[in-house]
Amino acid sequence: MLYTFYEMQQMAFAPMRYMATQGQKFYSNPTNPVSHTPAGRFASASFDILEQLTRRYGKPKFGLTSTIIEGQTIEVEEQIVSRRPFGQLKHFKRKTHCSDPRVLIVAPMSGHYATLLRGTVEALLPDHDVYITDWRDARKIPMTEGSFDLDDYVDYIVDWLEDLGPNTHILAVCQPCVPVYAALALMSEEDHPCTPASMTLMGGPIDTRKSPTEVNQLAQDRPYSWFENNVITMVPAPNPGMMRKVYPGFLQLAGFMTMNLGDHVDKHNEMFEKLVTGDGESANKTRAFYEEYRAVMDMTAEFYLQTIDIVFQRHLLPDGKWVSKGRTIKPEAINETAILAIEGELDDISGQGQTKAALDISTSLPHELKDYYLAPKVGHYGIFNGRRWREDICPRFKDFVRKHDQKVKKKTA
């Protein structure tokens, strides 16, 4: 019922959105004398903000068509190398003969699309052969494709690592730190030939009992049934995934916005003022951020609820009690893959110590294969995006990967 109401709301907003779009075009048209007046700029800015607030945002594009390698501009082509019902594996193929370390970025399935990691990919491209998991919106997946839960997520990671072959370096950002760790533990126990050469975990909830945040506390304080009854709804017709139970993207977005509502209001006020004063460049940067931020996807109910149960309420991974499809996830099985844990000092989603816990529970891994970095004055998103990521964290990751790569070759562009 909630999802149906949301769809009706979007339909009801359509005439208003059309009016806002036309009004913005009229008052911003340079051939219109009114557009050069304070009143015209005020009207244009008002319609612009209204259109943004009522729009339904689709899946963004990565838009990464080139990178710089040794001072030369190198063409980059996006390729889909593996398609599965709930996600695909994307390769950013560089038109170069460089043989750099192969990196699999595992994007979070936590509401946003993989394009949220555009800055992560962009910074890695000059020195790495980059792949990324590109998860699908559950709203668009027919019921005939079956279900998808946290255990299936683990299997997807193992399968994609097999597709890529030996000597792959895996990088998990936020939510996937848990299933990626589980996949590594399973492969290590089997002595799988495609076990990653290194694993980097960034801002992930390995053990949410360490420095619990507001998000962790919410999951801990409410019973499992509360989430099942209050945030799970059914996809309505005419969506391809109709009748599928999901945790809808619009509810996730509401939760994201509520956490820092004051900051979001301030940013929109600033954007409005920039538009009125004619500072389009600054306004466009804020607009671009929110176009990405508001682009959300649905998660399957079974994946979301199992994550709440296993990760946030019962802490089965750090306690060594997670049984995935009959297989016990054994942290002590990891004994050869180097692990780098990265946390942000100001992370308000995954508190300090939660990601570092991966090093503590890997009791069979030699100390020299464990590394940790706490990024000072960096929040959750700053770990994988922005200046601190590019200038501080990414170089550390690059050095770590090369240190543990089994076959680093000299680049020959």
Automatic annotation (TrEMBL):
Q: Where is the PHB de-polymerase C-terminal domain?
A: 203-404
Q: Which InterPro entries has this protein been placed in?
A: AB_hydrolase_fold (IPR029058), PHA/PHB_synthase (IPR051321), PHB_depo_C (IPR009656), PHB_depoly_PhaZ (IPR010915)
Q: Which domain of life is it from?
A: Bacteria
Q: Which residues form the signal peptide?
A: none
Gene3D superfamilies in UniProt: alpha/beta hydrolase
Pfam name, any one:
PHB_depo_C
Cited NCBIfam families: PHB_depoly_PhaZ (TIGR01849)
Instruction: Spell out the protein name for this chain.
Output: Polyhydroxyalkanoate depolymerase
Organism the protein comes from: Temperatibacter marinus
